[in-house]
Predict the 3D structure of the following.
Amino acid sequence: MAFFKLVKMTSTGARIGMGMVLITMLSAVLAPVIAPYEEAEVVADVWLPSGEGHILGTDQLGRDLFTRMLYGARNTIAIALLITFLAFLVGVIGGLLAANVGGWVDMLLSRIVDVFMAFPALILSLMVLSIVGSSIPVLIMVIALLDSTKVYRLARALAMDIEVMEFVEAARLSGEGIWWIIIKEVLPNAMPALIAEFGLRFCFIFLFISALSFLGLGIQPPTADWGSMVRENAGAISFDIMTPLWPAGAIAFLTIGINLIVDWFLHRSSQIRAQ
């Protein structure tokens, strides 16, 4: 009931976005049930067109593209969500702690973040993954660490604005501890902006994983991934075969859906604060 009540409150754009995200999520969750073949099973000739027993045709090795798309959603979305959660866990805790404790803690954490942010994220990721390898655990830790710096900056800025307000000063004067103030006073007031940032950060991480996979240092074959599927089938364009457009379109489809939801949420949050 609460879900349907929330849907009624949303704008048309947000409802469209929810539908796009829901379709993608259901495809990812139900991939083992819906997929007609195994994830890496070779079933026909290479680059067959749509039809002929294959809804989206086949890829460069003769694997069913529809099957690969479903498992690609499952793998890419799951990894992107895990990375986003880890980035927010590290970034939010560090940012709120730095803003509320201040002093050498704030100075130390902020300088460490500045060092990481001094390098372009893609170049630094490529360098690290080239040295230590691009296994999934390493990929998750590297991207989560890099993106936590951006979350840290936002969380710290929000906390710095909130901690000077009267209700926070009143909590300090009443003898409340730092963690009580962070959890009970600062975090609830920073939550709308952090939730919106979570959606946007998921999009950035999702696209970042796809970019790394396209460059050959992301999710490694035979694991299905939309970014690597674009790279592997890019040569089909030369033969007027549209195979790489399916995973590329799927990436755009999910990204647009999430952005529609985030735009509505930010608009609604700004209206609530203005009241």
